Amino acid sequence: MTGAEVLDVAREGVITFLKVASPLMLIALAVGVVISLVQALTQIQEQTLVYVPKIIVVGLALILLLPFMGDALAAYMDQIAARIAAGV
C-alpha cells in the first residue's frame, strides 16, 4: 500500500466520521444555544438545566439519524473490505 492509498483511506475515514458525528454535534450545539438564550433572558442560572433537554434531544436525534449513520459506516466498511480483498 502506497502513501497515497493510505491518505485516501484516512481521508475517507475522516469524511465518514464527519458525516456520522456532525449532525448530532450541530443539534447539541443548537439546543445548548437555545437553552443558554432562555437562561440569559429569564436570568435563571441553573447549570444543570442545560443537560436534560440536550440529552433528550440528542437521544431522539440519534434514534432518527441511526439509519443514515449506519449506512455511512457500512459504505466505508465496504470500501475498506474491498481494498483488503483486492490485496491493496
Describe the structure.
With 88 residues, this protein is an all-alpha fold. It has one domain. The chain is 86% helix and 0% strand. It has two helices and no strands. The termini are close together. It holds the Pfam family Bac_export_3. It is found in: Cell membrane; Bacterial flagellum basal body. It is a multi-pass membrane protein. Belongs to the FliQ/MopD/SpaQ family.
A few lines on this structure:
With 88 residues, this protein is mainly alpha-helical.
What would the keywords be for this entry?
88 residues; FliQ; elongated; mainly alpha; 2 helices
Largest sheet: none
**Strand-residue fraction?**
under 5%
> What gap, in angstroms, lies between the N and C termini?
6 Å
How many helices does DSSP assign? 2
Tally the beta strands: 0
**Basic shape:** elongated
Radius of gyration: 19 Å
Structural class label: mainly alpha
Mean pLDDT, to the nearest integer, reads: 92
Low-confidence stretches: none
Q: Give me the strand/helix succession.
A: HH
- The number of distinct structural domains comes to 1
Assign a percent range to the helix content.
over 70%
SSE blueprint and pairings:
Layout: H1 3-42, H2 51-86
Helix pairs in contact: 1-2
